[in-house]
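User: HAD family phosphatase, Streptomyces tanashiensis:
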Amino acid sequence: MDGTLVDTEVLWWQATEEVAARLGHRLTDTDAPEVVGRAVEDTAAHLVRATGAPDPDGIATALTTAFQKRVDEGAPMRPGADRLLAELERAGLPFALVSASPRSVVDSVVGGALAHVPFALTLSADDTVRTKPHPDPYRTAAERLGVPAAACVAVEDSPDGAASADAAGCAVLVVPSLLPVPPGPERIFADSLEDVTLDGLRRHVRARTAARTAGPPEGGTGG
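Assistant: Predicted structure for HAD family phosphatase:
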């Protein structure tokens, strides 16, 4: 959701910047790996380490409140997102929203900028025991869709999100937003959702499945 379908990663950065400033910490690019694509609790824990503040729960609440305020004021769609979602809908292909944001934020975006989108289901950080970068969110989404994770494509913009989808066994398409995402053996990349089509997603799954089925070359060994 954040940074993939809607341009909320900037809002999350602004919210974290605001809370960090209250704690006497100036947010810089060195903080980005602990902020971009991370769950609220992860960023709160980072601010505790950076500032020595004693109340991670209070910081998490402050982050959520600051972010929620910005989201409620409006979250613009990412380029190409509307067109791709409409293509999936026309094809009758079920799709889910899998987010590391709290349920309150997911509901706000789904009821606002994404109100026109017929998601089969939505998952927030509150809906699994562990959120991204753990595999739980994508495994749970695949189970609820009733399909193997290997038949799903996860579209992600952050290192944690891509790691979560990889670990769950999904094919992964990375469309980076604020933070660079490292390459992986089964990841493909696009500069924008404007460059992504349903046919392209299907080709990625087929190619990945074929490569896995083929196995190592004759006389070789698997890695």
